[in-house]
Structure formats: C-alpha cells, structure tokens
Amino acid sequence: MTGSRVVALGHYQPARVLTNEDLAAVVDTNDEWIRSRVGIKTRHIAGPEEPVDELAFQAAGKALANAGLSPDDIDLVLVATSTAIDRSPNMAARVAAKLGMRSAPAVMDLNVVCSGFTHALATADHAIRAGSATRALVIGSDKMTEITDWTDRTTCVLTGDGAGAAVVEASDEPGIGPVLWGSVPEMGHVVRIEGSPPVFAQEGQSVYRWTISQLPALARKACEKAGVTPEELAGVVLHQANLRIIEPLASKIGAVNAVVARDVVDSGNTSAGSIPMALSKLVERGEIPSGAPVLLFGFGGNLSYAGQVIRCP
What distance in Å separates the CA atoms of residue 204 and residue 82, rounded to the nearest whole number? Predict the structure, then answer.
C-alpha cells in the first residue's frame, strides 16, 4: 500500500442545546451581540454522564457502523482532546474498552487543542504508510463547557461539546495528502487552558489578527503539497472557531467552488471535535461528492496548525 484514505465518518453531540437567549439570562450579553461577533446561534452541552471518552465513543461507534466494520478491525486508536480531566487510562484506551476491542490496538491521546484532529489524522496516515497500522480510528472529542468561565462573556458564548470520528485504512491510491503543520511557540499564551481546575481563556484579537493574516498562505501551501489548486477544492472544513474568522479565511484561500463548513453556527467551538464533526455532517447530507478533494485545516491553541487535503469518503 502506498497511502491511506478516510473510508467513513461519524459524529455525536449531546441532546441539551444552549441558545443565545439562555446565555443572556446568566451573563451580560444578547443574541445580536453574539451573532454579530462570532456568528453562533446555539451550542450543545454535555451532562455529567457524558465525559470526553463517552462523546468519543459515540462518534466512533457511528463511524465504524458507517464503514461496515467491527471494533476488532481497528489496530490504532487516536483521540485528539485537550479537555480530558483524567490522565490514565487515556481517552483512546477508554474508547477501545467501551467498544469492546479485542484486537490489542495501540491507544494514544494527542493534545494539540483545536488542531488536534488534523494532527491525529496525519499521525494515522504516517503510521499506516510506515506499516505500523492497517486501520485506524481517529477521533476529535472535547467537552469545552467543562472548562468554560461562565462569567466571561467573551469566551462563554463560544464553547460547545461534541465529537467526530474517522475510520482510516491503507489504500493503493493515497486519499490523505501530505500534512502541513507547525506552530508559533512564542504566541502560545494567546489561547490557554490553565489552572486547577483548568479554565479556557484567550486573547481574541491576537488570535483573529494571526489567523486572518497568516492562515490563507498556509492553507494554500497545504493544497500545493497535495497537488490541488484552491479552485479545485469541493469542500473547505476549517476549525469551527468563529464564523467571523471562517468566512474571510475561506474567501482568502481562493476556494471559489467549495462548500464551506459553517457548523459553528449551530454547534459553537468544539475544539478538536469541530473539524470531524463538521465534515461528517457535510458527508451525511451529501453536500460533497465521494472522492472529491476537501481541505481540512485546524488552528488554535499553542498557535498550532495542521492541514491536509483529503478525498471525501
């Protein structure tokens, strides 16, 4: 095999929905203020019975079902998350146990915050290309509301909970392009999850300026590495951070023929869960043809970024 491909996707969101009107009852904000600044209408909130691994497990089960596979067909489980409170067993091991895997899979968590899923997808692709794995379950799962400061109106309006998962397997024809990844370590402080208990905080204007000025060129470079022009893209799935970031970025990338994911409007910022969840919904609705090129690009915490062009399952 000379590469790997995504063969199926799945996503999961908690049932409880928090509206802008609900938020206005607990913090000094309103629907117009939230929509005009971040473009979010609603977000989903997980209860105490839905920790990070439960969200991941639900999304993983759907991805496996969509692939027509059993848990024992998987030999690598990767979970991208930055909101797991427990350290061990890690989230990947817990998901494997919940799925009843008897295949002795390798189990790893990756914490690259909002770009975690695209980092994990690249890691799975590399492992399969190297012969270390044959079929991987790659999950982005975050419970952002558990680390949210509900008195800070600049951040509490952003966060939501959810997970998305992809099944990746070896392929004669590469369906996952080369990753472009990196970070800006000296600016890592602009997005933080720190303290005990941990709390999410960010310097919103710094994040906005960096993404708008730097990411278009990086995204175009990811396309170049895949041998695809922005005009050829059928879909663009950026980290669902803020609609006021997503829309100008998509325009600056030059993907004039692409469907642009705007799941942030209904789901909020779900960190590592945002890209696989948004992509899964686009595929479920049939908005991107199978085999068409789609740019995935994550960015955020650590000012880390990772992007690749994949072929839509």
Answer: 19
pLDDT for res 194 = 95
For 149, the token pair is 């400061």
For the question of residue 269 being annotated catalytic, the response is yes
Catalytic residue from among 11, 114, 302, 312: 114
Instruction: Give the dihedral sign, CA 266/202/279/82.
Output: negative
Helix (H) / strand (E) containing 149: none
Containing H/E element for 259?
strand 259-260
Q: Which of 66, 90, 269, 302 is catalytic?
A: 269
Question: How many CA within 13 A on the CB side of residue 138?
Answer: 32
Structure tokens at 89: 């067993």
Instruction: Return averaged pLDDT per consecutive 10 residues of the chain, 313 residues in all.
Output: 92 98 95 96 97 98 98 98 96 98 97 98 98 97 97 96 98 96 95 95 94 96 98 98 94 96 98 98 97 97 96 97
d(CA 125, CA 205): 34
Confirm whether 239 is a catalytic residue: yes
pTM exceeds 0.85, yes or no:
yes
Residue type, 139: I
